[in-house]
Amino acid sequence: MKLVIEKDLKAMSENAMYILLGAMLQDKRVNISLTSGRTPRMLYKMMIPLIKDQEKFKDIEYYLFDENPYIGEKYGTNWAEMKEMFFEPAHISKEHIHRISLDNWQDYDWQIRQAGGIDVMVLGLGHDGHFCGNCPRCTQFDSYTYCMEYKDKLAVNPTYGERPRQPYTITMGAKSLMRVKHLVMIVDGQEKAEIFKRFIEEPISQEVPATILKLHPNFTVICDEAAASLLSKNKDLRL
């Protein structure tokens, strides 16, 4: 694992952007996976004017890695948020966006392998150490993409809010992420400092599911100084 500590959100977003653009300029089919949430908004704001309507980026394929579909609909909040903050303003054609659903999750990993695998995935660190849709005490470390009833996740995470309209959660599991060629985690803010310290310094556990990602052979973690503020100063972080 390579840990990169930048001064602020702008600097860490630039760092992540350079990794993405480098991957996107490869002379082959390029498959990438991006995260929704608060942290990547500046990253996308920087990227959009550089890739929008650019011929060299028109054939990039995008894969969503989790979803909580609404009753009676295929997709949920993840697709809606990514569409609003990146896909639509970047003029990404729907034909190049691959969404995970109740209809296709069982074949999703196979489809990705047939397409050459994901070249780079950008993901965040949840407030409780979750990654993608893999949450504490209910993460299937030995699984590829899987579907779980939301009530089962809620049963072991009582602070999570009720989602009566979204009874299922679908996510790529740890094994799916281990196949990604380059994992890039972005973490910012003082509010993430405690869980970031646990993620970095604690052993792999169900209590902080993202710790499993430290086994990935090409894993870059980019954070700002605020998120890194509680890390042990004398600890060897070359993991």
TrEMBL record:
Coiled coil: none annotated. Gene3D superfamilies: 3.40.50.1360. The keyword Hydrolase applies. It is an enzyme of class 3 (hydrolase). Residues 19-214 form the Glucosamine/galactosamine-6-phosphate isomerase domain. PROSITE patterns: GLC_GALNAC_ISOMERASE. InterPro entries: Glc/Gal-6P_isomerase, GlcN6P_deaminase-like, Glucosamine6P_isomerase_CS, NagB/RpiA_transferase-like. Keywords: Hydrolase. GO terms for molecular function: glucosamine-6-phosphate deaminase activity. Pfam families: Glucosamine_iso. Its EC number is 3.5.99.6. The keyword Hydrolase applies. PANTHER family: GLUCOSAMINE-6-PHOSPHATE DEAMINASE-LIKE PROTEIN BT_0258-RELATED, GLUCOSAMINE-6-PHOSPHATE ISOMERASE. NCBIfam families: PRK12358.1. This is Glucosamine-6-phosphate deaminase. The lineage of its organism: Bacteria, Bacillati, Bacillota, Erysipelotrichia, Erysipelotrichales.
